[in-house]
Amino acid sequence: MNLLFTGFILCALLAAGSVPAAGWRDEAGWDTDLVAQHSRVSAGEAAQIVQQRTGARVLDAQPVRGGYRVKVLNRQGEVRVYFVDAETGAMQ
Q1: What is the number of other CB atoms lying within 10 angstroms of the CB of residue 86?
Q2: What CA–CA distance (Å, rounded) separates 47 from 69?
């Protein structure tokens, strides 16, 4: 099935209400539930990656376009935000 046809079918199903409503969207308009569902790295794994590499306390891990936004509190009392790629687990 080509991509255009698949997109057309998906749009038709969404318009008909046959597909459950999507999750909330981030600032860029990406469906965060969809990001989480199709990721190789989970939000928990992303939080663990950042915690192990920084030694900081994880405050929050949210799905965003292509990965996770992980907010931490470091030993100096500063809040830092890291990005973990959902496919590779690479931290930025």
Answers
A1: 23
A2: 9
- Model pLDDT for residues 52-78, shown as the tens digit of each residue: 999 999 999 999 999 999 999 999 999
Distance CA 79, CA 4 (A): 43
Where are the chain's structural domains?
24-92
> Count of CB atoms within 10 A of residue 14's CB?
13
The answer to whether the pTM exceeds 0.70 is no
- Residue length of the chain: 92
CB 47 within 8 A of CB 58: yes
Asked whether 66 and 90 are in contact (CB, 8 A), the reply is no
Reported as half-sphere exposure (CB side, CA atoms, 13 A), residue 18 has a value of: 7
The fold of 24-92 is Nuclear Transport Factor 2; Chain: A, (3.10.450)
